[in-house]
Amino acid sequence: MATSGKKPGGDAPVTLHARVLLDARGVITEWNAEAERLLGHRPEEMVGQPLSSLLIRPKPDEEGGLPQAPLVNGGIRVRLRDRSGLPVDVEWWMCPHIGPAGPVTWAVFLATARGADPGDFDRAVLDALVTESPIGLHVLDTDLRVVRFNTASPGMRDVRAEDVIGRPAREVAPTLVTDTVEHLLRHVLSTGEPVIDFVQPGYPPADPHREHLYSMSAFRLRNRAGEPLGVASLAIDVTERCRYRARVELLNDASMHIGTTLDITRTAEELAETVVGRVADAVSVDVLDSVYQGEAPEPGPVPSEVTFRRTAFHSTETSGLQPAYATGEKASYGFPTPLTQCLADLQPRLIRKVNDDDTWLAHDPVRADRIRAARVHSMMVVPLAARGVVLGVASFYRSATSEPFDEDDLTTVGELAAHTALGLDNARRYTRERTAALVLQNSLLPVRLPDQNAVDVAFSYLPGRIGGPWHDVPWYDAIPLSGARIALAVGDVAGHGMRAVAAMGRLRAATHTLAALDLAPDEVLAHLDDLMVRLAEESRAAAANDPLDGQPTTASCAYAVYDPVSRRLVVARAGHPSPLLAHPDGHVAPADAPAGPPLGGNGLPFEAWEQDLSEGTLIALYTKGLVRGSPDDDTGIARLGHILGQQDASTREACDAVIYAQLSGRAAENVVLLLARTSVLRDDQVASWTFPSDPAIVATARTLADRQLTSWGLSDLTFTTELIVSELVTNAIRYAPGTIQLRLIRDRTLICEVTDASSAAPHLRHPRTTDEGGRGLLLIAQLTQRWGTRHTGRGKTIWTEQPLPAHPGDAAPVTPDN
Fold this sequence. Notes:
By secondary structure, the protein is α+β, with helices and mostly antiparallel strands. Helices cover 30% and strands 27% of the residues. The chain has 5 domains: 3-115, PAS domain (Beta-Lactamase, 2-Layer Sandwich); 124-237, PAS domain (Beta-Lactamase), CATH 3.30.450; 242-434, Beta-Lactamase (2-Layer Sandwich); 448-678, Phosphatase 2c, domain 1, CATH 3.60.40.10; 683-803, Heat Shock Protein 90, CATH 3.30.565.10. Strands 15-14-13-18-17-16 form a 6-stranded antiparallel sheet, sandwiched between helices. Strands 4-3-7-6-5 form a 5-stranded antiparallel sheet. The model is unreliable at 1-14, 62-73 and 808-818 (pLDDT under 50).
């Protein structure tokens, strides 16, 4: 009967089905029914027979053979012969059996062998590797001919063995077993060094129309003598894994390289550059024309007749696809086509196979001709939509690549299109804000500079490239001053947008006001600095409630005043590049005024710089954007000076020449260049007299003024000029000590100036009918075109301007040659 127990030397219980008793000589004395069922021998046949007669001994050349004698107290695996003569593998345990009387006998317990024979394991492993394993196994001989291969691997499935065995591996899979792979396999044969995870693309015999990627490993096979028998190669299909990794890398690259600027065209180009060669052979990007103006259609589908602008097109050298429209060209899509359909429902279109006879091609003949010529076989059309608003369409084509697009490709480009659309929408919003700011800025800047004779002036204002940094908002001005002088100003407000433009407008208005007061350049900058400080205080107060509502807090400015009578230039600057002076002899030097802090900076005082200029000297004021395109500002300034030194034409021509030479393309920043060529009033245009402070000289002053007007042919102005001279000289004698100077200047107007040593300025008032005086300045204001007061180093000057006669026979205004 069956007996339960434990293996000797082990813990696992085992059921012993058969028991055989032996005497001391190994002869069977008892053979139970379980032994009969296990081996088929009946008890009467076995009792009296030695048990060793059933033992099948291993051959001498077999490895792992069983021992020649049983092992006492140890379970062993043996092979016995059953009644029909066939071998039966059993597990054998043997122990002494001591009965109640008699000699010592042995008890042998037998059970069906558990598990398989080691040889069976070897055969099973080999069979599984060559018939069931999903990993490709190829056993090659020393000539790299196929000896064995795994018929169940995806790359060799359904390939007949008789078509492969004995053939060179290069013939079986020529696109996979390349020269490089053959070299590696021969290296493994000769050196024994294995190759691990070598990635090789190619077309396997089981799927010759689709490229796969395989991770290949190889090791050498040897016999017992150590001689090489061949090479075993393992191949794992890693196509999907590599495609997933490539997709992740592509999306990562797109996040870093698409939308790096606020430029619509550049954003579209970045999409095309990122995708071509990795997903598609060619890419075209079309953006709604209205988007270029900062506008966008209503959310939802877009009408098929909407106008697009070809924004980007990029292709590989082997694609052969030519663009249907030139970059920048406007067009509408034919209807119905995949492009209009994706705009109708905002869903992408995947066209796995493009056939020459597809009906939609007839509705877009221009595009159809290009597609047929390049043999495009697959394409995708994806709308570029952000925040529910369609901005354009991207089209992807394959012609050189043999594989058609699939759903994974559509998912990938869908994510790329969404990222690109956000960049386009940001650029559109920036364009809209920038356009509005430029409109406001242009309305605050002078369209043309005022007429005057002190300098021949010209300017160039170039807004920065759309999508560029647009660091500052510039302003420029030429302001006529009293005494035929001119004030020139160029500045930059830090920042961009509406608030920077508003700050620029306030600075320009303040500059005009300060110039009207005839303040010195350093005093003008000091007052502008106070204004920027107040703007900064307002900005901090606003930022406490809204961090996005801050005002620009700093600005730069160069302010210069030129006097054509004295030929003196006075310059002061606040954090701005020094004006350049190109003298008539070709020498160029900076107006080396101390730099000074930016307006709204640390409040340090500003200093003025003065120099007498020769007639025809070219004064250049500019913003940093003009020289920032160089490797450094100093190099750009040096080149600018070289160009100015060669300019002897009109200021307009000189201005154009500088722009042509300094800017090779559209500047990223706003650029302002203000050029002024100096003039000098001739001696016969200026008359000046100095008188003592004596009431008797009033008549003399009137007489001298009368004579001067007669010599200038301005007799029509004699009466009013005599009244002006009498009033101004009388007031100077009454209120100011020391000498008095009278000066007449014939420029575009007749200028009359009286200078005295008093710093007190007169004020215009309306006298009552009973007042005996106070009507002089009121009378002057009625008789002149303009009048005012300016302070000088020794006192003040009261000046007036009268328009010159315009009728024939009278002297015409003197203007410099243009």
